[in-house]
């Protein structure tokens, strides 16, 4: 690998590392040295980016390959009766009730009642 390609690859990994460390939850990144700078029939130049399915942003690092990272910050600390949902078109992350995903789950001191307990309205110790 020539020095310029090595420098570009190193810069990509450093950017991914900073992006991952500064986020609420670790995001996955990967690098493919064999990938072409092409998506949905469109060619991309060095430094250009595109969004792939699943809220993954890829960047052309020609001639050394393509680097891709998730763009969503997934919460990691929430009650067990909540779950994370990602809207695939907007990449919006929502925390919803597992028992009824149409309803938002808002964790906090005043919202620590497990909805599975129904009318008993039992507070969880924690």
UniProtKB/TrEMBL annotation:
A cellular-component GO term for this protein: cytoplasm
Gene Ontology BP, a term: chemotaxis
Organism, as annotated: Culter alburnus (Topmouth culter)
Alphabetized Pfam families for the sequence: PSP94
GO molecular function: cytokine activity
General function of this protein: Acts as a ligand for C-C chemokine receptor CCR2. Signals through binding and activation of CCR2 and induces a strong chemotactic response and mobilization of intracellular calcium ions. Exhibits a chemotactic activity for monocytes and lymphocytes but not neutrophils.
Keywords: Chemotaxis, Cytokine, Disulfide bond, Inflammatory response, Secreted, Signal
Membrane-spanning intervals of the chain: none
Protein family: Belongs to the beta-microseminoprotein family.
Subcellular localization: Secreted
Name listed for the protein in its UniProt record: Prostate-associated microseminoprotein
Primary residence: secreted
Signal sequence segment: 1-24
């Amino acid at each position: 690998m020539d020095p310029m390609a090595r420098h570009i690859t190193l810069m990509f990994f450093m950017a991914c590392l900073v992006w991952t460390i500064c986020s609420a939850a670790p995001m996955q990144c990967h690098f493919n040295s064999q990938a072409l700078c092409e998506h949905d029939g469109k060619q991309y130049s060095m430094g250009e980016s595109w969004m792939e399915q699943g809220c993954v942003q890829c960047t052309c690092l020609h001639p050394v390959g393509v680097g891709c990272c998730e763009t969503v910050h997934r919460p990691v600390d929430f009650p067990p009766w909540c779950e994370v949902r990602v809207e695939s078109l907007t990449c919006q992350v929502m925390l919803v009730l597992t028992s009824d995903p149409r309803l938002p789950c808002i964790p906090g001191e005043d919202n620590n009642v497990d909805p599975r307990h129904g009318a008993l309205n039992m507070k969880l110790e924690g």
